[in-house]
Amino acid sequence: MTIIAIATDGNQVAGHFGRCPNYTLVTVENGKETARQIIDTPGHQPGFLPQFLQEKGASCIVAGGMGPMAQNLFSQRGIEVVMGIGGSIDEIVHSYLKGTLSSGRNICDH
Q: Mind giving me the DSSP string for 14-48?
């Protein structure tokens, strides 16, 4: 089982993982989506979100962008970071399931 945490704004990937209104947690088992849950962000506190998402079971974070400190904190927790991503949640899940989801240009500039 894998849980993907997608920084979301409505049904789209949010531009910055730490300033999004919520996260969509997608559970994948045997190559198929088995559950989807939307959780509100607990707020942007430096260093908190990697631990929060790890406690939710996330092994991958998807966002439009993220700063280098956050990238390092996720990596230290063994959470894969995929950034530079845009589009709808359904498109992202479809790409992940096909094995074609990969990082693009980080849109975060800090």
A: -S-GGG-SEEEEEEEETTEEEEEEEEE-----TTH
Residues forming a β-bridge with 13: 8
- Quick check: pTM over 0.90? yes
- Which amino acid is located at 65 in the chain? G
Beta carbons within 8 Å of 31's beta carbon, 6+ residues apart: 97
- Domains defined for the chain, CATH in brackets: 2-98 (3.30.420.130)
Q: Would you place residue 104 in the very low, low, confident or very high pLDDT band (cuts 50, 70, 90)?
A: confident
Strand partners, 29: 32
